[in-house]
Each structure stands twice: as C-alpha cells, then as structure tokens.
Amino acid sequence: MAEIKSTLDLIMEKTRNLTMTDEEKKALHSQELRGRVKGWVQKCVDGAMDISRLQADIEREKAKEPELMSDLIQELLGRIDPDGENEIHFQILEKVLHRDTASLRDMINRFQAELKEKSTEKTAEAKRNLKQRQISGSAVTPNLERDPQWNEERGQLKNFYLKQIHSASFLKDS
C-alpha cells in the first residue's frame, strides 16, 4: 500500500534542492525588519510599550540594522493622519529619533485650519440652498458628510497634505 504523505512532506520533498539567493535573503531580511518596526510602533500606539522601551530596543538593534532608522521614520510618516490623533507618533519622532516635528505639526495645523474654513463655507452655502427651498430655522444643520461633492473636496485636501507629510524630507536626514 502506498504511503500517505502530509502536505509538509510534499513541500519539503519539492523544495529540497532550492536555495535562496543573496538578493532574496536580503529582501526577506528587510521585510522582517519592517515587520518588527511596525510591531514596535503599534505596541506604542496601543500602550503596550512605552517610548523608553522602544528607545532601548532601537538603540540595541540599530548597530546591527543599518536600515532601522529609515524604516522607523517611514513607518511613522505612513501613520500620520491630518485628521487623526498623532501625538504618539510625534513623541517617537522627537524622543527616539531626535527630530524636530514643528514643521510637521504646523502642516497638520494648516490642514485643520483650511478644512475648518472650507467646512464653514460649505455649511453656509448649504444653508443658503436650504433657505431658497424655504427650509430654515435654528435647528436646521446641513449634514456635510452626506454631500458627495464635499467628501471629494475634503478627500482631495487631505490627500494633498498626506503627500506633503509622506515626502517630509526634513525628517529623513539622519
């Protein structure tokens, strides 16, 4: 009777003579490093790791991992959201990476001010439109979230600022 092989046995049999090239090993190592960095940042965001522990881990690893600091900056910039809560990301940039975040904070403040201004204008326009249809009163509040044009404008504004944040070269210099 034929022997029944497990999936693992079949895979091991098929890959017995395969080896990874140096380029593949380097790519795998970079991917693992990015995964570790992402995990550290997520733990800080979740409150499972404090910034001093992250700093100790970074100090211990950065001599062995030349890409570590760059990967950490990229991870942090990728997580910054002009609409969201970013304080932990700024703290990591400042305390662990010793970067000045004033211009980044200013960029987010400009986004929020511009968004508020546009929102106020759009709300006033919506109220005028409702008043023309003879809908008015102190309880009338337009719901901008249901306006597809507003959502598109808001998305474009946010994307504009996200592009600036992601290309924040002033933070990338080591």
DSSP strand content: under 5%
Distance between the termini: 65 Å
The secondary structure category is: mainly alpha
- Total beta strands: 0
Sequence of secondary-structure elements: HHHHHHHH
Query: Major sheet: size, sense and barrel closure?
Result: none
Q: Average pLDDT, to the nearest integer?
A: 89
**Rg, nearest Å:** 25 Å
* Backbone shape: elongated
Helix content: 55-70%
Number of helices: 8
The low-confidence runs, each spanning 5 or more residues with pLDDT under 50, are none
Short description:
This protein is mainly alpha-helical. The chain has helices at 7-14, 22-46, 51-62, 68-79, 87-96, 102-132, 148-166, 169-172. The model has no long low-confidence stretch (mean pLDDT 89).
Keywords:
174 residues, mainly alpha, elongated
What are the SSEs and their pairings?
Blueprint: H1 7-14, H2 22-46, H3 51-62, H4 68-79, H5 87-96, H6 102-132, H7 148-166, H8 169-172
Helix pairs in contact: 2-4, 3-5, 4-5, 6-7
Q: Can you describe this structure?
A:
By secondary structure, the protein is mainly alpha-helical. The protein is 70% helix and 0% strand. It has eight helices and no strands. It has helices at residues 7-14, 22-46, 51-62, 68-79, 87-96, 102-132, 148-166, 169-172. Helix 4 packs antiparallel against helix 5. The protein is elongated, with a radius of gyration of 25 Å. The chain starts with 6 loop residues before the first helix and ends with a helix. The model has no long low-confidence stretch (mean pLDDT 89).
